[in-house]
Specification:
The protein has 363 residues and is an alpha/beta fold. It has 13 helices and 12 strands. The structure holds 5-amino-5-deoxy-1-O-phosphono-D-mannitol. The active site is at residue 358.
Length: 363
């Protein structure tokens, strides 16, 4: 039942504060991670993890790419690959390597094949971050870490993505503990997660402004999404959402790559979307955006209060102060809403876009 919402996708976007809380429930308390909630087997696997290989498809792959930044930040080497590539190549598995699959459905054919193939590859074990308890991935993995997003009906994944990121952030704290994360650092990370549902609520209140932005977007044929650091995979996810449901060709680039090719595409008809969090790469991104402006590209920016943009023309939406650790999660929300409103204006079938299936159970 969609309730008051026009589409399941919109309903699922609005469910995010609740399902994020749900995913945190019983797993954190007073600034600490409650590791006992992971179960003994999971804890034992994490104890011997020296490297993480993440394998997933689509949106779940993007969640893995964000997690790589997080894991490496606390000292854990991590590789991430799409399952359809991973499964068909010879892989060299470093010792002490844990395989993590990420999947909403737990039935994605390539991800499942990658897991099955991994048994002979020398991993210490497999962990799945999954949303469906009775799925094949949950059954066949050594251990699982459930997201609690509830049933996701819209083909375009939204609440599954943000809860995957929450789960991966919790795993980062758990692994970080084994790599010298201090009590103060843990407390900061956990408190950020604790505030996340409220932060998402605040962003959802900007929906009307995002709808206005979307009206300037719906006649476009192409779009570039830029980001740096963990906001590059956030840009990839934003571009995927837009292309999936609005059929506008959208590509994501790490902003620093502009000069190496994509800048040639930029003129007055090329909108550029970018999340501009207050982080150490901000100045770099601003100078990349300056290059876009100099070629007439139209800018659609999402930033937070502390950011002084200082460019000549742009549309922007200012979010309240966002914590750095969970910022990739928070900044994903306006991109979901942008894609949604563009699709609604274009009149596409938002919940069931052409040519796509919710669960990709064949290659
Ligand atoms: O169920 P999974 O998370 O394994 O699905 C992976 C992809 O098929 C899925 O994320 C797809 O990219 C979505 N339609 C994106 O919105």
């Amino acid at each position: 039942d969609k309730g008051p919402y026009a589409h399941y996708m919109l309903k699922e976007i609005y469910e995010q504060p609740a399902v994020v809380s749900e995913t945190l429930e019983g797993r954190i308390h007073k600034g600490r991670l409650l590791e006992d909630s992971f179960g003994h087997e999971t804890k034992a696997l994490l104890d011997s993890t020296k490297h993480v290989q993440i394998v997933a498809c689509g949106t779940s792959y993007h969640a893995g790419l964000v997690a790589r930044y997080w894991l490496e930040e606390v000292g854990i080497p991590c590789s991430v690959e799409v399952a359809s590539e991973y499964r068909y190549r010879r892989v060299v598995v470093p010792s002490g390597s844990l395989l993590i699959t990420i999947s909403q459905s737990g039935e994605t054919a390539d991800t499942l094949a990658a897991l099955r193939g991994s048994r002979e590859q020398g991993y210490i074990g497999s962990l799945t971050v999954c949303n469906v308890p009775e799925s094949s991935l949950v059954r066949e993995s050594d251990v699982c870490f459930m997201t609690r997003a509830g049933t996701e009906i819209g083909v375009a994944s939204t609440k599954a993505f943000t809860t995957q990121l929450v789960a991966l952030r919790l795993l980062t704290v758990a692994l970080g503990r084994r790599y010298g994360l201090t009590t103060e650092q843990e407390e900061a990370m956990v408190n950020e997660l604790h505030s996340l549902p409220r932060q998402i609520e605040v962003v959802l209140e900007l929906a009307d402004e995002i709808q206005i932005m979307a009206s300037d977007f719906s006649d476009k044929h192409n779009a570039l999404f830029l980001g740096r650091g963990p906001f590059y995979p956030v840009a990839m996810e934003g571009a995927l959402k837009l292309k999936e449901i609005s059929y506008i060709h959208a590509e994501a680039y790490p902003a620093g790559e502009l000069k190496h090719g994509p800048l040639a595409l930029v003129d007055e008809s090329m909108p550029v979307v970018c999340a501009l969090p207050d982080d150490p790469l901000l100045e770099k991104v601003l100078s990349n955006l300056q290059e876009v402006r100099a070629r007439g590209g139209e800018l659609f920016l999402f930033s937070d209060h502390k950011v002084k943009i200082g460019l000549d023309r742009y549309q922007s939406l200012t979010l309240s102060d966002i914590f750095p650790g969970t910022a990739p999660i928070v900044y994903s929300i306006p991109l979901q809403l942008l894609a949604y409103h563009v699709a609604v204006i274009k009149g596409t079938d938002v919940d069931q876009p052409r040519n796509l299936a919710k669960s990709v159970t064949v290659e």
